[in-house]
Amino acid sequence: MRFTIFLLCLSAWAADVMPPEPEQRLARVIYQEMIEVKSGFTTGSTTPIAESVAARFKAAGFPVEDIFVGGAIPTKANVVVRYRGTGARKPLLLLAHTDVVEAKREDWTVDPFVFLEKDGYFYGRGTSDDKAQAAVWVATLLRLKRENYRPDRDLILALTADEEGGGPYNGVNWLIEKHRALIDAEYALNEGARGMMVGGKRVEHQIGLAEKQFLNLRWEVRNKGGHSARPVPDNAIYHLAAALQRLSGFEFDFALNEVTREYFRQSAKMEASGLAADMARVAEGDRAAMRRVAAASAPLNAMLRTTCVATQLEGGHATNALPQLAAANVNCRLLPDDSVESVVAQLTKLVGDDQVKISVTTNEGASPVSPLRDDIMKAFTRITDTMWPGVITVPSMAVGGTDGRYLRSAGIPTYGVQGFFLDRDDVRAHGRDERMPVKSFYEGQTFLYEFVKALSK
């Protein structure tokens, strides 16, 4: 009898991990619609997605005054929807972006803008970054509406433009500057962390509390040039090449903060490779262990230090002329406590060549670390433990950038929370054949639904 009860409990548990079938179908339809809109930063538009989402909420009975569509220019629309609660607490903001990195059909083995389910994965540009979360947020609010759920705070959905490119059309920055009241909240849930699988096994669930700063530097050399038949050592390309060669062998110093220290302490518990002991030592400040961990893993190296890398080159004006210009874009990701001035000073000293001029072209600025709140951490850990027993909760710092930086700088703490598990060695965001495990998508749908309810009742 006890064994029968145990089997029944397991069966009920398996059902609880996945959303009800009608909710799965709805989320999938929304997901597909979003993937098949070409919303690339330079060539696409987020407006069709914003308008489609607004129409869904209107059809579901949301008041017109609680739905906003607008953006910096006509092709960069954002959509903001307010789900009214009792007002006992300040609102909770649910954020995702609907633009994507460009994708060329000839680079992919499948069409990046055709939603494809194959071999247990959903394929398409944006399946992991960030249309899965956008689709789930929409499905979650529609489900709560059908269930007549009454939260103790307003729930604000914001699906925004141009996270991938930033600049003057970034939706979050535009909303903060032009329509702050629409998205003002006690805190926000956004991308910026993930669940991690190793060998198909779920091992850790990250919650993002911080992110690195985004900085672009232009390294430029100019001189008079001349005829290629009379070469001279003073060649702009040679000066630049020598500087970049020095950069290739340079590493900034190690530095830990409270988030990364805790990340290494917790991740060491589940690390199956030979790095586990060193990761635990990293949390204690062991620099020898830091060197070994950084050498073994590019992602962990990025957690430990500021990084700078050359990403673009230009130079020369004719095949038969000495170059008058050679330039490179160097992209840097700074630790939250590092400064642009310090980085530029270190690189200038490294280059040691007055002909190489280093200038700042993009500086998105540092953003504060979000506080480690007990209510958020307890709810996150409880739901994680319930859905995936044995998976540990790990505070993390995003080594890339998200729109959370705008919110944190505006005084809205932001937490990277997704519930989608991806293989540690198969993260394809921004790359070829981007994909999301089908099971991970639906489990993430359940997690985010339960997490929103836990924070609003």
Major beta sheet, strand line-up: 1-2-6-3-7-17
CATH class category name of the largest domain? Alpha Beta
Q: Structural class, please?
A: alpha/beta
Beta-strand residue percentage: 15-25%
CATH topology of the largest domain: Aminopeptidase
Oligomer: single chain
Shape call: globular
Count of helical stretches: 15
Description:
The model is unreliable at 1-15 (pLDDT under 50). The strands form five sheets. The protein has a six-stranded mixed β-sheet, sandwiched between helices. α9 (276-283) packs across α10. It has 15 helices and 19 strands. The protein has two domains: 18-192 and 402-454, 3-Layer(aba) Sandwich (Aminopeptidase), CATH 3.40.630.10; 213-363, Alpha-Beta Plaits (2-Layer Sandwich), CATH 3.30.70. The protein is globular. It has 457 residues and is of the alpha/beta class.
Give a short synopsis of this structure:
The chain is α/β, with parallel strands linked by helices and about 450 residues long.
Keywords, please?
23% strand; 2 domains; four-stranded mixed beta sheet; 457 residues; six-stranded mixed beta sheet; globular; disordered N terminus
Layout: helices, strands, pairs:
Blueprint: H1 2-17, H2 21-35, H3 47-59, E1 67-71, E2 77-83, E3 92-97, E4 116-118, E5 121-123, H4 131-146, E6 155-160, H5 171-178, H6 180-183, E7 187-190, E8 195-198, E9 201-211, E10 213-222, E11 226-227, H7 236-248, H8 258-267, H9 276-283, H10 287-296, H11 298-304, E12 307-315, E13 321-322, E14 325-334, H12 340-351, E15 357-363, H13 374-387, E16 392-398, H14 404-409, E17 414-416, E18 421-423, E19 435-437, H15 438-454
Parallel strand pairs: 3-6, 3-7, 7-17, 8-18, 9-16
Antiparallel strand pairs: 1-2, 2-6, 4-5, 5-19, 8-9, 10-14, 10-15, 11-13, 12-14
Helix pairs in contact: 2-4, 4-15, 8-9, 9-10, 10-11, 13-15
